[in-house]
Write a structure and sequence with these properties.
InterPro entries: Leu-rich_rpt, Leu-rich_rpt_typical-subtyp, LRR_dom_sf, LRR_domain-containing, LRR_R13L4/SHOC2-like. With 202 residues, the protein is largely without helices or strands. It contains 1 helix and 8 strands; from the N terminus they run αββββββββ.
Length: 202
């Protein structure tokens, strides 16, 4: 296994390839991939359908990364260093085992798409600065354990897609009315009995 992964890393380095795809390779630890964190030139890294349980702090070495795909792993926690990725635009953490997000997560200055579908997150999982992610255009929180969302949701004014289906939401904050660019709101499969009138303005 490691030879083929090593080859992918070497080819990326030699040919200066910006995209590295290691989907479905049975990887359980990113540190087992020889030389992966020396690829500071890459802009896209796909590690979906593997067996990762954590993301190492070395992720910060991939400083030009724009797209990170960890879909369908067993990741339980993220390092605080992930928030130092200044160019990260698209982060897919769907279908993992996250029940918390690291401190400082909201300081990703370029993040546009965040997929946290199918995790174990709730309103208590979000760090205080989560809603500083004001560049977000799409936020996928479906299939988690949210009962409420904080009023700070209204700060995500660039949001066009907000997916909240299949949570335990009892209510939505009236500040959702501040999301004036919202085009899609998915709220099926919750415990909502009433929607805030402010939604009518969106």
């Amino acid at each position: 296994m490691s030879k083929s992964l090593k080859k992918i890393v070497e080819e990326s380095r030699e040919k200066n390839q910006p995209e590295v795809d290691m989907c479905d390779r049975g990887i359980s630890n990113m540190l087992d991939v020889p030389g992966l964190f020396t690829l500071s030139h890459i802009t896209q890294l796909v590690l979906s359908h593997n067996k990762l349980t954590t993301v190492p702090a070395n992720i910060a070495d991939l400083r030009n990364i724009e797209v990170l795909n960890f879909f369908n792993n067993q990741i339980e926690e993220l390092p605080t260093q992930i928030s130092s990725l200044q160019k990260l635009k698209h982060l897919n953490l769907g279908m993992n085992r996250l029940n918390t997000l690291p401190r400082g997560f909201g300081s990703l200055p370029a993040l546009e798409v965040l997929d946290l579908t199918y995790n174990n997150l709730s309103e208590n999982s979000l760090p205080g600065n989560f809603f500083y992610l004001t560049t977000l255009r799409a936020l996928y929180l479906s299939d988690n354990d949210f009962e409420v969302l904080p009023p700070d949701l209204g700060k995500l004014t660039k949001l066009q897609i907000l997916s909240l289906r299949d949570n335990d939401l009892i209510s939505l904050p009236k500040e959702i009315g501040e999301l004036t660019q919202l085009k899609e709101l998915h709220i099926q499969g919750n415990r909502l009995t009433v929607l805030p009138p402010e939604l009518g303005k969106v």
